[in-house]
Amino acid sequence: MGRRDLDESDFRSRPSKRGSRPRTKQRPEHSDAVTGLVTGVDRGRYTLLVGGATGGATDGEPADEKIVTAMKARELTRTRVVVGDRVDVVGDVSGGDGSLARIVRIQERTSTLRRTADDTDPYERIVVANADQLVIVTALAQPEPRTGMIDRCVVAAYDAGMSVLLCLTKADLASPDALRELYEPLGVEVVVTQQAPSGGDAAGGADGRAAGGPVDRAAGGLVLAPGSVEEVRGRLRGLVSVLVGHSGVGKSTLINALVPDAKRATGVVNDVTGRGRHTSTSAVALRLPVGGSEPDEAFDGWVIDTPGVRSFGLAHVEVAHLLHAFEDLDEVAQECPRGCTHLADAPDCALDDWIEASPEDERPARAARLSSFRRLLSSRTGSDA
Ligand SMILES: Nc1nc2c(ncn2[C@@H]2O[C@H](COP(=O)(O)OP(=O)(O)OP(=O)(O)O)[C@@H](O)[C@H]2O)c(=O)[nH]1
Ligand SMILES: [Zn+2]
Asked: Where is this region: Disordered (predicted)?
């Protein structure tokens, strides 16, 4: 599994903001194939959206779109198909009761988010395909934030050519300032969410609903401040975003606020066939409704939840490749001795000279960036615990 499934070159480039639609290389024998987007995977059954512009569109649900259940064709037995993949399907693509289509080909991927084998999973895996952005959901308290975990997520995202949004939750309990200082120097965007000021009361109140807005009640009954949810929605607009986070950080609360009607918006659960129901461990793609509108009216992006992903094994990440995500550092590091680790104890690392040579007013920013970068580098080999 893993790397040999695809061309190494195809995840090196940073995808465009809107994501380019890959060309389909159809086999002649499957000239009748249609394109589907994988939104869910469950024990060998794949939930696809087929028809309309599902090949890549993020704006609006086409009228002729269907939810199709499919399995892999025999020639793909050893190939991993993941959420976010665009696939060619043949056979019964009616989406009707009991229908089952066949995936005959995976289209070229614009990005592949991977994890190396670790304690919780013995295989290197592609987690999600074709995503633009990794959203790391971290609570500011309860549970305490763990920078090691965040660092590893950042490395995995940059290695995949994805951008990073750090979503700091529970800002009603603690300040986000310290974490901002650690991650903004890395080019990580930071967004903060919190419980609505009257949240505690609303949850226990007579009807407990967020008044009138698109912000629905979360599973746990907690209402997030609508402004903070809309800020997150703004950062997800037009993009395919993967959300990761440890248990208890408020990821479900956030997703429920962003996608109040997840089932209807995505058809992840096919009520007719009962197929495609996602387990608690596999990723699932949810369409992001445009804020302030009815869920059915318009969509603007995808939110991919990854309930099973609690950590990223990073043994597959190469330093040289990770450096590409930091253009300025990458350029400086060209001057390093051969085999330089670029870590703080590396002899003659050019990155140290870069700090020494910096103008006085730029020095603190450079130093912050370098020390954050070195922290990322060490997280590659460090343990997640
Ligand atoms: N104070 C506060 N509590 C929050 C906030 N967001 C979520 N919570 C609470 O944190 C707890 C965990 O939230 P969940 O949304 O279930 O967390 P999760 O990350 O989905 O965790 P799992 O369901 O275990 O994967 C719940 O009791 C929420 O009510 C917040 O902004 N502020
Ligand atoms: Zn170096």
From this structure: 1-31
Tell me if 194 is assigned to some domain.
Answer: yes
Ligand 1 atom having least distance to the Cα of 256: 15
Is the CB of residue 143 below 6 angstroms from any atom belonging to ligand 1? Answer: no
Single residue among 283, 305, 327 that ends a domain in this structure: 305
Domain co-membership, 70 together with 204: no
Same domain, 265 and 342: no
**Do 139 and 274 reside in the same domain of the chain?**
yes
The verdict on the CB of residue 69 being under 6 Å from ligand 1 is: no
What is the DSSP pairing of strand 101-106 with strand 112-115? unpaired
> Whose C-alpha lies nearest to ligand 1, atom 12?
248
Nearest CA to ligand 1 atom 26: 220
Are 141 and 255 in a shared domain? Answer: yes
60, 269, 285, 286, 302 from 294: Cα distances, Å: 12, 20, 19, 15, 16
Among the bound ligands, the one closest to the CA of 255: 1
**CATH number of residue 71's parent domain:** 2.40.50.140
Residues 150 and 288 reside in one and the same domain: yes
Ligand 1 pocket check for 172: Cβ under 6 Å: yes
Amino acid at 154: V
The CA distance from 206 to 209, in Å, is: 9
**Residue 200 assigned ligand-binding role:** no
pLDDT per residue as tens, the chain (385 positions): 444 444 433 333 444 444 455 555 544 578 889 999 999 988 889 999 997 654 444 455 556 788 999 999 999 998 899 999 999 999 999 888 889 999 999 999 999 998 876 666 667 788 899 999 999 999 999 999 999 889 989 999 999 999 999 999 999 999 999 999 999 999 999 999 999 987 444 433 333 334 434 444 444 578 999 999 999 999 999 999 999 998 899 999 999 999 886 544 344 443 333 334 444 457 889 989 887 545 455 778 999 998 877 677 787 888 888 999 999 999 999 999 999 999 999 999 999 999 999 999 999 999 999 999 999 998 876 544 3
Q: What is the ipTM of this complex?
A: 0.97
Rounded-to-integer distance, Cα 379 and Cα 373, Å: 10
CA–CA gap between residue 34 and residue 30 (Å, rounded): 9
**120 within some domain:** no
Q: Is the CB of 234 under 6 A from ligand 1?
A: no
Query: CA-to-CA distance for 193 and 180, rounded, in angstroms?
Result: 13
Q: Is the CB of 251 within 6 Å of ligand 1?
A: yes
Residue 312 lies in a domain: no
